[in-house]
Amino acid sequence: TNAGSPKVARLERDPRVSLLVVNNVGEPEYWVAIDGEVEVREEGAAELAKRLADRYWDMTDEEHMKTVEMWLAEDATLRLLEIVPTRIRTYDG
Question: Cys bridge to 37: 5, 15, 46, 87, which one at CB 3.0-4.6 A?
Fold first, then answer.
């Protein structure tokens, strides 16, 4: 997330967050919900993005490579949003 984004400004004022991850429509219902507070970190965002891209993207794809290169070039303006959970809920059908 870019340091100058409205999201970062809002989270710095009020760090309370919720994250919900669910299955695709048509799949059995499974989900995890995380409530907590976010810590906005000035370091580590580009490095994490690169690690995730290497794991989940086809890095022989030119568009993916360009996107990661852009993230690495913008490292000084990126922010890492780290959730410190206060509550975790799950549902597994």
Answer: 15
In the chain, the domains with their CATH numbers are 6-91 (2.30.110.10)
Tokens matching residue 41: 């970190």
Residue 90 pLDDT: 97
Separation CA 30–CA 22 (nearest Å): 6
User: Global pTM?
Assistant: 0.78
Rg, C-alpha atoms of the chain: 16
Phi, psi of 31 (to 5 degrees): -155, 160
**Tokens 């048509």 correspond to what residue?**
26
The two structure tokens encoding residue 8: 């970062």
Amino acid residing at 30: Y
Which pLDDT belongs to residue 75? 80
